Amino acid sequence: MDLSLPGVDSLKEKRRKIKPLLSRLQSRFKVSIAEVDFNDNLRQARIGAAVVSRDAAFADRMLARIVRAVDSDADMIMTDYRTEIL
Asked: Can you give the residue range of the structural domain that contains 12?
């Protein structure tokens, strides 16, 4: 998921917005999640989530719920996302 972080003026401020989001998602959905790109870009972040399941439909539903949760966060704007089921 690609995120825009308007109004962020330092990497420290970016971390203060991203880390709580990652923690909330990890505890709520029991998934592995991390910032995976744009680490040095103040106003952009890319986060990735991994769901392990034997049921592809379940994994797809879980990823859709995660995307909705991120999209509803008022501190950031989701600019793009994609899902991949292996």
From this structure: 2-80
List the beta bridge partners of residue 70.
Answer: none
In DSSP terms, which residues pair with 55 in a beta bridge? Answer: none
User: What pTM was estimated for this model as a whole?
Assistant: 0.84
Residues near 49 by Cβ (< 8 Å), separated by ≥ 6? 1, 25, 29, 31, 32, 33, 63, 66
CATH of residue 24's domain is 3.30.70.1120
Residue 33's alpha-carbon distances to 1, 4, 16, 17, 29, in angstroms, are 11, 18, 16, 15, 10
- The Cα–Cα gap between 80 and 68 comes to 12
| 85 part of a folded domain | no
pLDDT at position 14, please? 94
Rounded CA-CA distance 68/46 in Å is 15
What is the total count of domains within the chain?
1
